[in-house]
Amino acid sequence: MLDSEDWGAIWLTIKLATLVTLLLILFGTPLAWWLAQTRSRLKSVAVALVALPLVLPPSVLGFYLLVSMGPHGPVGQLTQSLGLGLLPFTFPGLVVGSLFYSLPFVVQPLQNAFEAIGSRPLEAAATLRASPIDTFFTVVVPLAKPGFLTAATLGFAHTVGEFGVVLMMGGNIPDKTRVVSVQIYDHVEALEYAQAHWLSGGMLVFSFIALLLLYTFNPTRARA
After folding, report:
1. Is this model's pTM higher than 0.85 or not?
2. Domains contained in the chain, number
3. Fewer CB atoms < 10 Å away: N or C end of the chain?
4. How far is residue 100's CA from residue 84's CA, in Å, rounded to a whole number?
């Protein structure tokens, strides 16, 4: 059965995934819109940077984030000068690492949804003298709702399943940085297979339900 540390890891994971998903939707939406609309030569570079976590080993990404946010890194020196302290081995550090690692799982579905809208609805809105902001919120967002659903589902599920990045950035501090994936690793390392089965089985069921809902209610976007 699950003990208090297991439940603490579950709660921390849900808290982390919820916050990261909301932040990625907030900041990833304008980025995805720019990628869908721009004809800049830098688009291919930006797309490659966004997709980099898909192919980069999580330990590599976590290592460079750890170095850059450490006491001698540029980000670490900036946060210290601002009186914010250091981000590694803190919950905010987990959030920052998860934002980078889950970025493509939110931006790419949104970009695909925006590109699928086409130019006709935007041109029709322009003929009615709608401002770009009005057009985005009254035309683009409603038409791209399936993309937002896909992005939120994948972003949340992917953050829940993180291991390498969160371990590198957050370490293994109970109730502060120890998420479910790290807790499973601890159980296995201690040969506590019963507890590992409970948590792993819960992760398996959660992942299946998330994908089932995604493919049931949004099959076209999910395939994309």
Report:
1. yes
2. 1
3. N
4. 20
